Amino acid sequence: MAFGHTRLDVRRAPQSSYFSCSTTTVAVFVALCLVAVWMASSMLVTPTEFSPFQPKVRPLPPQDSPPDTGSLTSAGQDDGIREMERDVPVDPPPVTQQLPPVTDSMDSEDQQEDVKEQVRKPDRQRTSEQPEVFPDGSQAELFNETTTERGPWQTKAAQSNKDAKEQTLTSSSPVSFTWVLCNVDAGTDYIPCLDNTEAIKKLRSTKHYEHRERHCPEKPPTCLVPLPEGYRNRIRWPKSRDQIWYNNVPHTKLVEYKGHQNWVKVSGEYLIFPGGGTQFKHGALHYIDFIQEAKKDVAWGKRSRVVLDVGCGVASFGGYLFDRDVITMSFAPKDEHEAQVQFALERGIPAISAVMGTKRLPFSSRVFDVVHCARCRVPWHIEGGKLLLELDRLLRPGGYFVWSATPVYQKLPEDVEIWQAMSALTSSMCWKMVNKVKDRVNRVGIAIYRKPTDNSCYEARSETNPPLCGEYDDPDAAWNISLGACMHKLPVDPTIRGSQWPELWPLRLEKPPYWLRGSEAGVYGKPAPEDFQADYEHWKRVVSNSYMNGLGIDWSSVRNVMDMKAVYAGFAAALRNLKVWVMNVVPIDSPDTLPIIYERGLFGLYHDWCESFSTYPRTYDLLHANHLFSKVKKRCELLPVIVEVDRVLRPEGRLIVRDNIETISEVENIVKSLHWEVHMSYSQDKEGLLFVQKTTWRPNETEDKL
């Protein structure tokens, strides 16, 4: 058989064996010399030449879909903090998993299964973005809060009349977890602190809506809330403002009660929201503009940025105020108006389940620019005006109360009686009625009152009823504090919060409040204005360098966000240009920074994370926990807290945890047992970041009913 030659063989003459040997010898000699030089030079390198903040990242091994079982043993699992392998480059980018976008609807069941399979087994890709941002040098203190129980950073736990005892708990994760579905009357809508039927049965009275208030179980539940049958990924904003999937919130009582008022209607597989309400049947936007026409100084989106909507219904008022660059904290009780707050949150509108009963609302004093009530069914005038005095506590000096109800514009005997009582009460509170006008389109009337900006009217009253609160009555004490029938004096010192109106929006977002003093230390130890600015700059870097690109989040699918430990709300401020809203939570055992959050034109509330949050299941798209869990587990067990996270987060929703590596490992073990997808587990020195996504998995077993 003949063998042909390549062109290379033809062009090159054969090399002698002697020449080959000589070349090899020279090459080996040169290589040995280079190795010797390298070894000598490497001994001169000092440890300080290596950055202590190099990210330590290792790709997570592919995982098959978890079996459909009610328990999962964590023994033998990875410890959750991925150390960098030797063969990984010195400066690797974060490892992420890119998820396929989820559309608002699927054409077939097969397509839904395809998407679910992609979510279960996403491709792991490296990105070319900058590494994860952790504080270094001057920024390192952003992980460490100063411990202050007095002065400007007093905690709500210190102010509350509820004794929360600190306890030392074991930090090791359980070896295994066994999960069952909750077996409660509330079913798929279970809110542990609002559906505690045993505690409600023992109430001596329900006259003041005590049965709608929080009554948390002594032992937080560790069962999982089931999904409604036919649940699917929620429709994206802004389309969700107009329609949601019926199967996600399968309730029709409001359709029967309020359909004629354009609250909500059923249309095939959708619930439709025409944008109306009891007082604005012809649309919320007309009503919103009518309010500003009645009082130009309201100035939506400039002077008035943060609104409280009492008895919000399905929150169409707050939903359409977004069009005027206004954010609204809407609330209503979990009552016979079935699922009204759940409708709001499914639509992508902020709301909480709460009632004006016997306790103060969980907000700071003097923080809302406008308070609104449209047929909110609150008897403001009774019992010395105790409930209206709570609004006085919350309303900013110079702020407006907008009241739209039948006593304003109807002449029935009951309405006339209520109007006269309200007129006397508001006058004694020094609220000035600046306008009373009727809307010819909606055929309703509104009365607008303005809260005073100084104490001159209080001091000039002939009768001190309602009385002024005592000097030891802290207006900012708001967690589990009983209502009082008194008014708090207004600040007169121009350097005190409440003595001046905030900067116009959006300037107030970035500028430190005028009342933050450089002589006082902030949460992280710097002078307060510098602390505020450093926090904001830090979160802008983290969001820009990591969260926007490095985590592979499809932000168009994110609408409802919660920062579980917000501090100055720098994280929320950094998300300003996205179509999201952020519920900023200030834990009761953290420094009281909630007034700062409102001053910059954002909103939030106080909460104790050893208890359930006052929201329906499956209502948030993304939860952010920055050094929260390591602090919470000093007071209560971590497992029920993560179960609460599972309850609040919707299927396919995401959780970002930044904490010490021990806590990161504990959280990762728990969420793995819940069959969540771990998209990133990242460590640097003793700090870690965990990015996980909830799946639709639920256990097969149901707990025994007591």
UniProtKB/TrEMBL annotation:
<dbReference type="InterPro" id="IPR004159">
    <property type="entry name" value="Put_SAM_MeTrfase"/>
</dbReference>
<dbReference type="GO" id="GO:0008168">
    <property type="term" value="F:methyltransferase activity"/>
</dbReference>
<comment type="similarity">
    <text>Belongs to the methyltransferase superfamily.</text>
</comment>
<protein>
    <recommendedName>
        <fullName>Methyltransferase</fullName>
        <ecNumber>2.1.1.-</ecNumber>
    </recommendedName>
</protein>
<feature type="region of interest" description="Disordered">
    <location>
        <begin position="55"/>
        <end position="170"/>
    </location>
</feature>
<keyword id="KW-1133">Transmembrane helix</keyword>
<feature type="compositionally biased region" description="Basic and acidic residues">
    <location>
        <begin position="113"/>
        <end position="129"/>
    </location>
</feature>
<keyword id="KW-0325">Glycoprotein</keyword>
<feature type="compositionally biased region" description="Polar residues">
    <location>
        <begin position="156"/>
        <end position="170"/>
    </location>
</feature>
<keyword id="KW-0472">Membrane</keyword>
<dbReference type="InterPro" id="IPR029063">
    <property type="entry name" value="SAM-dependent_MTases_sf"/>
</dbReference>
<dbReference type="Pfam" id="PF03141">
    <property type="entry name" value="Methyltransf_29"/>
</dbReference>
<feature type="transmembrane region" description="Helical">
    <location>
        <begin position="21"/>
        <end position="45"/>
    </location>
</feature>
<keyword id="KW-0812">Transmembrane</keyword>
<keyword id="KW-0808">Transferase</keyword>
<keyword id="KW-0489">Methyltransferase</keyword>
<dbReference type="GO" id="GO:0016020">
    <property type="term" value="C:membrane"/>
</dbReference>
<feature type="compositionally biased region" description="Polar residues">
    <location>
        <begin position="66"/>
        <end position="76"/>
    </location>
</feature>
<feature type="compositionally biased region" description="Basic and acidic residues">
    <location>
        <begin position="79"/>
        <end position="89"/>
    </location>
</feature>
<dbReference type="GO" id="GO:0012505">
    <property type="term" value="C:endomembrane system"/>
</dbReference>
<keyword id="KW-0735">Signal-anchor</keyword>
<dbReference type="GO" id="GO:0032259">
    <property type="term" value="P:methylation"/>
</dbReference>
